[in-house]
Amino acid sequence: MVLGFSSLCASLMQSLVIPIQPELPHLLNTSAANASWVVTATLLAGGVSMPVSGRLADIYGRKPILIASAMILIVGSLICALFSSIGPVLIGRVLQGVAMGYIPVAISFVREITPPHMRNSAVAGISATLGVGGALGLPLAAWIAQDFDWHMLFWLSAALAVLMTVFSALALPHVAPVDRAGFDALGAIGLALGIVGILTGVSKGNDWGWTAPSTLVTILGGLIVLIGWGFYEVRHPHPLVDLRTTVKRPILLTNIAALLIGFGMMAQSIVVPQLLQMPTEVGYGLGQTILQAGLWMAPGGLMMLAFTPISSRLLTTLGGRATLALGAFVISAGYVFAVFFDGEPWQLMVATCIASAGVGIGYAAMPTLILENSPASEAGAGVGVNSLMRSMGTTVAGAVMAIVLTSRTIPMGSVAIPAETTFRTCFIIGAGAALAGALVVLFIRRNHPRAEVVETSEHAESLT
User: Fold this and answer.
1) Is the pTM of this model over 0.85?
2) CA 4 from chain center: how many Å?
3) Are residues 312 and 215 in the same domain?
4) Percentage of the chain with pLDDT > 90?
5) Which domain holds residue 32?
6) Is residue 278 located within the same domain as residue 191?
7) Residues 419-443 pLDDT 10s
8) Are residues 279 and 191 located together in one domain of the fold?
9) Helical (H) or strand (E) element with 273
10) In terms of Cα–Cα distance, which of 15, 286, 44, 296 is closest to 131?
């Protein structure tokens, strides 16, 4: 319960400032370009911290890293709550992103401390929080931003972070580290530079221009750094990420599927709120407020939680491979529904619920596949890399959806708004990405579910 609650609180940071994003330039007395970094900074920091936190947990133990992540969230939240200028708020948002490293560590930890018959349910529940937090955070943040001062968003996150810290310190057991190797600091720096470069270029490409020198330098520079990082990691005796394990077929294909399924999950989070809030005067807009749009999206987050026991049962009976493929197919079905039924808010809610059910299934299966094919000494880092791939999928989705939505616009007063066809194109692209993820998963070697259960039970006994 503590790991689930704390992971949910950490994942709320993804959507905490989305309701106030249009007002951020005024609130922070800065330009729109600078204000956009308040959202991007958390994404970048979270992408880097997930594999790094996972590796630190493998070396120093899960509990200390979980407590440290929660304390970092306290500091970041307090900085944002106490200041109203762009510099301190950016620092605070970076620290809030770093705290998202709590989630992959919690996923690997829960598999160690739960009885074998509860393991699939526990992993499914913790994994679902990565999507649930973003979905439920939107209406919560919209309500607070609408009725209170915007700083209250960060006072709330600070209070939640205090509870995370206290609960984690008091309730979580201490388990001895599974790997006594030293920490690869240079590898962590190289990974950070490469990931930040790529994600910055992708997330800002639509604003800077995809052929602009700044975009090309950041993306290509990030790729070059990651290639050099890969050669370094292969030769390091105790690497941050063991690439020999990562390129094993089950793990490699699971991570590719994570990229595609992360893309599929984020597409709905970007497109559906915009369509809901589009003015009715254009003929296809639904005229909802930010709070109303968040409430229409909230059932999707609840659907992810509701599917936790179902995901557990699927993992037990079908195994991780078939469960992940099924989840991706369900996501695709949600988008197909939206292509044909998008004229009423309740129709988009149904489409979101279908896709969210698929996300819940898929997010439960991914860490299970990673943990089943990774040695115990690399479990945290393996889940962290998988979470990073999901994050990269969401970033790419944001860039692709922005390109599509601005590819064809219609004038409305002094602004241009996306044409109706662009929304349906986004739904089709989301369906295609999820379907591609399902097809990738089918190339993973089939394992008998019962054999997997026996293997995980033996692993738990060896840890004991």
Assistant:
1) no
2) 15
3) no
4) 23
5) 2-184+238-463
6) no
7) 888 889 999 999 999 999 999 988 8
8) no
9) helix 249-277
10) 15
